[in-house]
Amino acid sequence: MAYREQGRVRAWLTREYGGLSMWGLLVVLLVLGGVAGLWAYTKSQAAAEPDGDAFGALVIREAAFVGDSYSAGAGASDTDVRWTTVVANDLGWSEDNVALGGTGYVTSAGKEACGLDYCGTYAETIGDVGGDPDLVVISGGRNDGRSPAGLENAAVNTFEKAHTRFPNALIVATSPLWDDDEAPAWLEDNAEVVKRAAEETGTVYLDIGQPLAGHPAYIAEDGLHPNDAGHVAIAIAFEAAWEDFAASQ
């Protein structure tokens, strides 16, 4: 009886379907099953991987930018090529840009500089940031001029306001930018003040240097703002500083 059953099994396994024996079909099914399992595992792992940059428990998906006309995109042919948008696209962030021309840590502006009747300081502009960003970048400072009174207090207040409003976000300040001319000494002095304020408040300070210096080809026809190439140069400088920061985490 056992011999008869074994014979039936052997006959079934050697039977052919479309030129392929049952043994062959079983092998194919096992291979396909393994591939399907691997595909499902890979898909589940990919779903678990978040988009954007990750630093410890913090994942950057949404970034807000506060700043002056350079950050707003003045001089660029389109907002798609302003440096903040180039950075956001390169790093996989969604962008909320509330930068306003003519403004600074202690400096507000009017219609001639920003197109509105009143454009507030950076501390005031933080109130315009929408949603719940993972990252807030504050970039500017040239409009504050030579060693303005109250700069350090204003910078501290700006950073503290950002931390208070977005307690789960990474708050970043950059060094102030200049055009293709050599940056004046007072700009470096102001940068040191902002850096101290950042350190005092637990804000990340990124020194992005002066990527436009010595490059008149990076400046728009107004002689002041970066053109498309200039915005790309600023984006490259920011991303280099960002990568250095990321590597230190």
Describe the fold and architecture.
There is one protein chain. A hairpin with a 2-residue loop joins β3 and β4. The chain is of the alpha/beta class and 249 residues long. The chain folds into two domains: 47 residues; 195 residues, Rossmann fold (3-Layer(aba) Sandwich). α4 crosses α9. The chain starts with a helix and ends with a helix. The strands form three sheets. Strands 6-5-7-8-9 form a five-stranded parallel sheet, with helices on both faces. The chain is globular, with a radius of gyration of 29 Å.
Give a concise summary.
The protein is α/β, with parallel strands linked by helices. It has a five-stranded parallel beta sheet, with helices on both faces. A two-stranded antiparallel sheet has the order 1-2. Helix 4 packs across helix 9 and helix 7 crosses helix 8.
Q: What are the key terms here?
A:
single chain, 249 residues, alpha/beta, Rossmann fold, 45% helix, 13% strand, globular
Q: Any low-confidence stretches, pLDDT <50, length ≥5?
A: 1-13, 22-50
The CATH class name of the largest domain reads Alpha Beta
Task: Please state the second-level CATH architecture of the largest domain.
Answer: 3-Layer(aba) Sandwich
Query: Could you name the CATH homologous superfamily of the largest domain?
Result: SGNH hydrolase
**Tally of separate domains:** 2
Helix run count:
9
Structural class given helices, strands, pairing?
A: alpha/beta
* Overall spatial form: globular
| Count of distinct strands | 9
- Give the rounded overall mean pLDDT: 85
- Strand content is 5-15%
Largest sheet: 5 strands, parallel
Cα-based radius of gyration, to the nearest Å: 29 Å
The end-to-end distance, rounded to whole angstroms, is: 72 Å
